[in-house]
Amino acid sequence: MNVNISNRELMQTIGAAARTAARHLALATSDQKNQALNAMAAKIRRSAADILSENARDLENARARDLKPSFIDRLTLNEARIEAMAAGLEEIAALPDPVGQTIAEWARPNGLRFARVRVPIGVIGIIYESRPNVTADAGGLCLKSGNAAILRGGSDSFHSSSAIIACLQRGLDAAGLPRTAIQMVPNADRDCVGLMLEGLDGAIDLIVPRGGKSLVARVQADARVPVFSHLEGICHVYVDKAADTEMACKIVLNAKMRRTGVCGSAETILIDRAGAASHLKPVIRTLIDAGCEVRGDAETQAADPRVKAATEADWPTEYLDAIVAMRVVDGVDEAMAHIARYGSQHTDAIVTADQSTADRFLKEVDSAIVLHNASTQFADGGEFGFGAEIGIATGKMHARGPVGVEQLTTFKYQVRGNGQTRP
Amino acid sequence: MNVNISNRELMQTIGAAARTAARHLALATSDQKNQALNAMAAKIRRSAADILSENARDLENARARDLKPSFIDRLTLNEARIEAMAAGLEEIAALPDPVGQTIAEWARPNGLRFARVRVPIGVIGIIYESRPNVTADAGGLCLKSGNAAILRGGSDSFHSSSAIIACLQRGLDAAGLPRTAIQMVPNADRDCVGLMLEGLDGAIDLIVPRGGKSLVARVQADARVPVFSHLEGICHVYVDKAADTEMACKIVLNAKMRRTGVCGSAETILIDRAGAASHLKPVIRTLIDAGCEVRGDAETQAADPRVKAATEADWPTEYLDAIVAMRVVDGVDEAMAHIARYGSQHTDAIVTADQSTADRFLKEVDSAIVLHNASTQFADGGEFGFGAEIGIATGKMHARGPVGVEQLTTFKYQVRGNGQTRP
Predict the structure, then answer these.
(1) Contact A400/B418, CB-based, under 8 Å?
(2) What is the mean pLDDT of chain A?
(3) CA A359/CA A365 separation, integer angstroms
(4) Quick one: average pLDDT of A328-335?
(5) Strand locations in A192-250 (E)
(6) Whether B412 and A400 lie within 8 Å, measured CB to CB
(7) Which among B114, B368, B413 has the least Cβ separation from residue A413?
(8) Measured between CB atoms, does B378 come within 8 Å of chain A?
(9) Nearest to A369 among B340, B383, B413 (CB)
(10) Which of A305, A348, A310 is nearest to A328 (CA)?
(11) What is the ipTM of this complex?
(12) In CATH terms, are B5-228+402-414 and B235-383 the same topology?
């Protein structure tokens, strides 16, 4: 890669400082980390006016560049969003500390005692876009799990993120932890992202991208270190013949329409042909009444004249909008075949009163999260009880599904003996 | 990458067949998989004469090419090694099936019930060198963990591996499982390795290299999919001032000399200065009496005239031979600093009667395996009680330490509800 030399030096300095900080953090006590998190929250509350005025600078630049309203919305901070950031840090402080937990313990006939113990991963690079609150969330989750963080936010939120980082570093100070435990890349050159994806000569252990599909795709394509991410959430709800119609309508509506822009929102509804006579019309009506566009195969179109025609391009599409694809299938087998072909191994749900059909679906669908009689929008670390998440992963290594503090750790084996040698 | 078109087509066909087989295997019962493993073992025993005659062809080629005796030894099969392969498959059959195990279960206040359940990873590519027995070990471990395997052995062991693969595929047949569950790349072009490292268009989920440092280094540098591996095992034994001298000598001797060519053999001995008066001479004498060359710093040399001078190049060296580096350090802190600087995060041991010093070492040394009062040569899946291992991993993602059948699985979340929607 062709990189500006001063950027390379800058990033190497950041990487080396993060590695040193990570060794400190791995040995920090829970009290120290929680003290830092609570001090960060307090500092953010006290600095609300400063943060808002820095955010105003970012917003002014964004408006001058005529960016889209949805972009401006993600960039915008207000009193409530600042309070949510502070409260989020306090919630992370209240979570159990995963570091040092014993995951498994056993002994061998020769007297050796084995323990598998959680330890931090090391240095985590977070690459994100315009949401300034990712700065606090990601920094807090990395700290709690004992990892040093290198944050590289979008240039559009630079002033806001800098003001937030200053609060986080004051919190680290207050607890006697190194400020370099949470660093921000102080420069918007895209070079710096490339260097992070190469791992900064072994200084970065893991990359977490937070943003749209093009950001995640670039990270997945170029990263030379492990990445926790999902490219897209093409989530399905399969309505089995043995579904209760009312429950099916309620779950489909929530899975699609509660929030259409989140990765756990449903994009395709599959209706069992054997139950179509009772389920198809009510499900379509529920969605259309709620303002959702329905694109269906011939049978779906035949059930309601308001349904538009779906094409092959609809099945692998993540709309992230009030649009849904719908198809009639021959039972759970064809539903699972459809999901295997078009899904993204993120989150898929079945609605049925038949326990054995549900068990087959939960066993056989190869997605990170599979649900029975519940909405796909439960794909969220908070809803899982993880307290907070840095994102959702669809890869098969290490973390799958919501990535909370526990998933930001790895483990080591501690072996205790009394002089054993191997025969 | 510039690749011969027919090789690309060949590998795509193998990849697609493996992906289809993986879907079958994920749903295979434990009985079916164990039946296949036992049938494989029986077939290998019955085919011993065939396997030996194919091995003789490989050996003839190797001798004609004047390859090193150590290489010829790794390539050589005999009755005992064939029996060990068969017995190994039966041992894998006897292990508990990790697939379908519930790792964690919990419920949320809204009534949703969560289960984290083990599932296979999918398709695993194994790239190895001359040892033909890797064919049976790796094939068996992948099958037990529900994964399809694509095996690419060295060209030098091609005939031996082909004869073994034929036995494995007969075992799959006997249990009604697809032969494509364990495939061998039928061609020695290096192209094929490159294509595997690229992941065969998403058909390969994980690569496991089995072989020397240059093979592992190439795989780590070029792989675009996750890799379970260790580049080298620069393992340390630290002899604390509070060590029992006799135990220290016994552990150091075993850690270095039991087998010098394995990754868990010790390469550097660190002696606490405060205990050097009693420990240094006996430890050196024990090693030299056993035929080990000792290379030491000035203090080590002063203790015994037979010690050669160590240079800076010795500390990061994996000898894999009857040579050891030795250094006197200022207590556990300097020992841990040395390990952090020169170690490979593989396996490190402390010998001490002081519990709190041992606890610090086990907590603070950032290696996959840390031992107290036991030999580093216990770094082995069998010794951990994992039954069998496909290798040892030093990465921080997913698998660390010995990689057995459990480490060849991932998990999914199964969520059971009764109509819950997200507010």
Answers:
(1) no
(2) 94
(3) 10
(4) 98
(5) 206-210, 235-239
(6) yes
(7) B368
(8) yes
(9) B413
(10) A310
(11) 0.89
(12) no
Q: If you measure CA to CA, which chain B residue comes closest to A397?
A: B398
Q: Measured between alpha carbons, how far is B327 from B102 in angstroms, rounded to an integer?
A: 47
Average pLDDT of the residues of chain B: 94
Chain B contact probe: residue of A201, A257, A415 with most B CBs at under 10 A? A415
CA A272 → CA A276, A332, A344, B88, B213, distances in Å? 6, 7, 21, 46, 54
Q: What DSSP designation does A56 have?
A: H
A244: its two tokens: 């209760």
Task: Give the B window 31-70 contacts with A, CB below 8 Å.
Answer: none
Domain locations along chain A: 5-228+402-414, 235-383
Kindly report the number of other CB atoms within 10 A of residue A201's CB atom. Answer: 13
Q: Is B2's pLDDT higher than 70?
A: no
Digit-coded pLDDT (tens) for B344-399: 999 999 999 999 999 999 999 999 999 999 999 999 988 988 888 888 998 888 88
Cβ neighbours of A62 (radius 10 Å): 19
Alpha carbons B128 and B123: distance in angstroms, whole number: 16
- DSSP H helices, A260-306, are 276-289, 298-303
Comparing alpha-carbon positions, the chain A residue that sits nearest to B382 is A108
User: Please, what sign has the CA dihedral across residues B312, B318, B321, B326?
Assistant: positive
Q: What is the C-alpha to C-alpha distance for residues A144 and B313, in angstroms, rounded to an integer?
A: 38
Q: Is the pLDDT of residue A217 over 80?
A: yes
Class of domain B5-228+402-414: alpha beta
Pairing of strands A148-152, B206-210: unpaired
Amino acid residing at A99: V
Contact B163, B184 (CB under 8 A): no
Residue A395: the pLDDT is 86
DSSP secondary structure string for all residues of A18-67: HHHHHHHHHH--HHHHHHHHHHHHHHHHHTHHHHHHHHHHHHHHHHHTT-
Q: Is B104 on the interface with A (CB under 8 A)?
A: no
Phi-psi label, residue B197: left if phi above 0, alpha if psi -120 to 50, beta otherwise = alpha
Q: Which of A231, A256, A371, A396 to mutate to test the interface with B (most CBs of B within 10 A)?
A: A396
Q: For residue range A118-145, what is the model confidence (pLDDT) as tens digits?
A: 999 999 999 998 889 999 999 999 999 9
- pLDDT at position A2: 63
Strand, helix or coil for residue B231? coil
Burial class (CB within 10 angstroms; exposed 0-12, middle 13-18, buried 19+) of B313:
exposed
CATH class of segment(s) A235-383 = alpha beta
Residue ranges of A 301-320 with Cβ closer than 8 A to chain B = none
Interface test with A, best of B108, B124, B415, B418 (most A CBs within 10 A): B415
| pLDDT per residue as tens digits for the range B103-125 | 999 999 999 999 999 999 999 99
Q: Which helix (H) or strand (E) holds B120?
A: strand B113-120
Q: Tell me how far apart the alpha carbons of residues B84 and B100 are, in angstroms, rounded to a whole number.
A: 29
pTM: 0.90
Does B378 contact A247 at a Cβ distance shorter than 8 Å? no
